[in-house]
Amino acid sequence: MNLIDTHSHLYAEEFDENRDLLIHEAIESGIDKILLPNIDSTSIDRMFSLCDAYTGFVFPMMGLHPTSVDCNYEKELEQIQSLLEIREYCAIGEIGIDLYWDKTYLKEQEIVFEEQLRWAVKMNLPVAIHTREAFPEVLQCIHNVGNDKLSGVFHSFTGNEKELDAVLELNNFKIGINGVVTYKNSTLREVLKRTSIDKIVLETDAPYLPPVPYRGKTNLPIYIWKTAEKIAEIFGLSVKETVEITRNNTLELFKIVNK
User: Fold this and answer.
1) Using CB atoms within 10 A of its CB, is residue 20 exposed (0-12), middle (13-18) or buried (19+)?
2) Is-contact 144 114, C-beta < 8 A?
3) Model's pTM, two decimal places?
4) Is 259 helix (H, G, I), strand (E, B) or coil?
5) 24 is in an annotated binding site
6) Is residue 187 a contact partner of residue 160, using CB atoms and an 8 Å limit?
7) Strands 200-202 and 173-177
8) Which sites bind a divalent metal cation 2 (predicted)?
9) Is 70 annotated as a binding residue?
10) How far apart are CA 167 and CA 138, in angstroms?
11) Residue 174 per-residue DSSP state
12) 143 annotated as a binding-site residue
């Protein structure tokens, strides 16, 4: 089984002491590709270094995360944009709107998000979308740019039935499912029964959101298998079938990993 993790911050400082070992363990477990979303200008060098060290195993995205958007967004966005032509990316990401911590820069977040959506259209790349307490705003931005022109994934999807239906109406978008689906208090398991596994891709969001029984610890690449097991249970499939289907979903969306 060859499993793809569609969203991991494996370049993060949390993994500095044992990153090579964790990658070796991931490969041994059957993980053969990991997609890396960027955060902002401070994460670029670390992400590029990891990509250069493990070409063909990790694949970069490029984007500006909404929680890194402030009054200096124009300069930060310009720096991110300047890197779009220097190498290949599997997506524009991680982008979106986050109003969980602070609503001060909502307008700036919307401007930045829509600009990066336009990059995706121009470059014919999917987008990896972060949305927290901002689903209506994210949806409006997608429609403003043109949902028929866009494709991508709603990373770390934890929405309700109405939000899932709205994603499904976009046609060219999938949902990224991580360890949250294993949490006892999560309603995600019931929500997912409204859709098909053809709309799902797997992710860790490492080092965040580890699945049960590792909740409270640093999320590691190999923990994605617990998420795969839970998805298999929800849809009445074997883990092998689940990995194959979600892999095909990923390859369909993120075309660079087929090269």
Assistant:
1) exposed
2) yes
3) 0.97
4) coil
5) no
6) yes
7) parallel
8) 130, 155
9) no
10) 11
11) E
12) no
Question: Can you read off the two tokens belonging to residue 256?
Answer: 């660079």
Give me the phi and psi of 195, to 5 degrees please. -125, -175
Structure-block tokens of residue 176:
């990224």
Is 205 marked as a binding-site residue?
yes
Sheet strand arrangement including 152-154: 3-5, 31-36, 58-62, 91-98, 127-132, 152-154, 173-177, 200-202
The reply to whether 7 sits in an annotated binding site is yes
Q: What is the pLDDT along the chain (259 residues), one digit of tens a residue?
A: 799 999 999 999 999 999 999 999 999 999 999 999 999 999 999 999 999 999 999 999 999 999 999 999 999 999 999 999 999 999 999 999 999 999 999 999 999 999 999 999 999 999 999 999 999 999 999 999 999 999 999 999 999 999 999 999 998 999 999 999 999 999 999 999 999 999 999 999 999 999 999 999 999 999 999 999 999 999 999 999 999 999 999 999 998 766 5
Assigned token pair, 86: 């220097």
94 annotated to bind ligand: yes
**Site of tokens 């990373």:** 155
On whether the CB atoms of residues 60 and 101 are closer than 8 A, the answer is no
